[in-house]
Amino acid sequence: MEHTVVLVHGIFDTGKIFAPMARYFAGHGLRTHAPDLRPCSGAQGLEMLARQLKQVIDTLDAQIGPESTLDLVGFSMGGLISRYYLQRLGGLERVRRFVAISVPQHGSRWAWFLPNQGCRQMRPGSPFLQDLNQDIASLAQIDLLTLWTPLDLMIIPAGSSVIPVGRECKIPVLLHDWMIKDSRVLKAMADFLLEPEPVGPVAR
């Protein structure tokens, strides 16, 4: 069966940041797809980027078939984009497993320094985050792994990455951007994505 992992980048980035991860996954038999979401500055808000992600996945389904296994990885802002797709655009019915890497699940204080719509949505206590987190339990419908570092200086406080759903793995990576290429993170992801079904008491 075809096994595809969609990689969702964060603010001011493109899918190219996942090149080391894509190579690592390819060595483990995982096909990856890393789209560029625009504008990556968050100027148009995260809902619009999530709708782009849905279009990407719908197009991918036409190529690989909806019966194929599809997993999702979201890094930083990309994790919130992924969550909006999962929780608000029907993604929970399509995605099997979700990996959230250093995601400001409860916001980051850095978001106060930029005034655009996407950054306002990533501020602690924003209406966007309150909306997603009020039914965060819905994510238990799929297998979920949260990876975060207590040394993160982009997600402030670093514990904002932690959510009460799925598994959690704390890895002391020195810098935020290094999370997507650290060997310990990559191994934890591959182990999770390649773990045979079923994974725990997950109701589908």
Kindly describe this structure.
There is one protein chain. This protein has 204 residues and is an alpha/beta fold. The protein is 31% helix and 15% strand. The protein is built from six helices and six strands; from the N terminus they run βαβαβαβααββα. Strands 2-1-3-4-5-6 form a six-stranded parallel β-sheet, with helices on both faces. Strand 3, helix 3 and strand 4 form a beta-alpha-beta unit. Helix 2 crosses helix 3. The protein is globular and about 40 Å long. The two termini are 19 Å apart. The C terminus is likely disordered.
β-strand amount: 15-25%
Q: Which oligomeric state applies?
A: single chain
Spatial order of strands in the largest sheet: 2-1-3-4-5-6
Shape: globular
* Relative helix content: 25-40%
Spatial separation of the terminal alpha carbons: 19 Å
Structural class: alpha/beta
Question: What is the H/E order?
Answer: EHEHEHEHHEEH
Number of strands: 6
Mean pLDDT: 94
The biggest sheet amounts to: 6 strands, parallel
Kindly provide the radius of gyration, computed on alpha-carbon positions and rounded to a whole number of angstroms.
15 Å
In the predicted model, the low-confidence regions spanning at least 5 consecutive residues are: 199-204
Tally the helices: what do you get? 6
How does the SSE layout of this entry go?
Blueprint: E1 3-8, H1 19-26, E2 31-33, H2 46-64, E3 69-75, H3 77-88, E4 97-101, H4 117-121, H5 127-134, E5 143-148, E6 167-170, H6 183-193
Parallel strand pairs: 1-2, 1-3, 3-4, 4-5, 5-6
In short:
The protein is of the alpha/beta class.
